[in-house]
Design goal:
Elements (H helix, E strand, L loop, with lengths): L2 E2 L31 E3 L12 E7 L4 H16 L4 E7 L5 H15 L3 H13 L8 H8 L6 H8 L2 H16 L4 E2 L1 E4 L3 E3 L7 H17 L5
Parallel strand pairs: 3-4
Antiparallel strand pairs: 1-5, 2-7, 3-6, 6-7
Length: 218
């Protein structure tokens, strides 16, 4: 279950293999308010001619860390008319704002693919407190990163703007828990009865099909 602003809910997500995902055709019809909710009003997307899927997340959320490896596998299976974009959000927390800046700084240095999951591991398994710039720089010390280049990116106007844009999107999409997947600017995955992370992706698959059938592309 997603991490809300106030607490974790009681659902425990296991790290199931993506292969355990049931075929979409075998899924029961989705229930609004239980499996998904409408995004009202629908939001424009940044992927013309594509079905855009947004993952709202934070490195500070352990459930996001559990979903991340499955999400990467899932991304590799998406059809050509679907694009996945990750959106790190802050919920107004300075610590999470620094984690969002970390995400965008690594992305700008083309080091995100290499270090993305390592950030989750450091935070939630190794208990490294990556919530301040000095702590982040210390952690990056042996990661083959240009530290001055990272500092410049971390404190850049571009990264600050991207963090602000991410929080703006979270507000427009009415995101109050992470991880949350949103499809085509119209639907957000709820998964109240999900038994594991793969169930969230199975719901997203069905919402992608729905968006395609409705012609809901960017």
């Amino acid at each position: 279950m997603p991490l809300t602003r106030r607490h974790f809910n009681r659902l425990i997500f296991g790290s199931f293999a993506l292969a355990t995902l049931p075929p979409v055709a075998a899924q029961a019809a989705l229930a609004e308010g239980e499996d998904w909710r409408a995004i009202t009003p629908p939001q424009p997307t940044d992927a013309p001619g594509k079905i855009e899927v947004l993952e709202f997340f934070s490195y500070g959320c352990p459930h996001c860390g559990s979903l991340n490896p499955l999400l990467k596998q899932w991304k590799s299976t998406l059809p050509e008319d679907v694009v996945l974009r990750r959106v790190p959000i802050t919920f107004g927390r300075q610590a999470w704002a620094n984690l969002a800046r970390l995400f965008y700084a690594l992305e700008s240095l083309e080091a995100l693919d290499r270090l993305d999951q390592a950030v989750f591991t450091a935070l939630h398994e190794q208990r490294v407190k990556l919530y301040t710039e000095p702590a982040i720089l210390e952690w990056l010390g042996d990661k083959e990163i240009d530290l001055q280049g990272f500092k410049d990116a971390f404190n850049s106007f571009d990264v600050q703007t991207k963090v602000g844009r991410s929080d703006y999107l979270a507000e427009r999409y009415q995101i109050d828990a992470v991880p949350t997947l949103a499809v085509a600017g119209r639907y957000a995955v709820l998964g109240h009865k999900a038994k594991g992370m793969p169930d969230l992706l199975a719901i997203a698959d069905q919402l992608i099909d729905r968006a395609r059938n409705e012609g809901a592309t960017g």
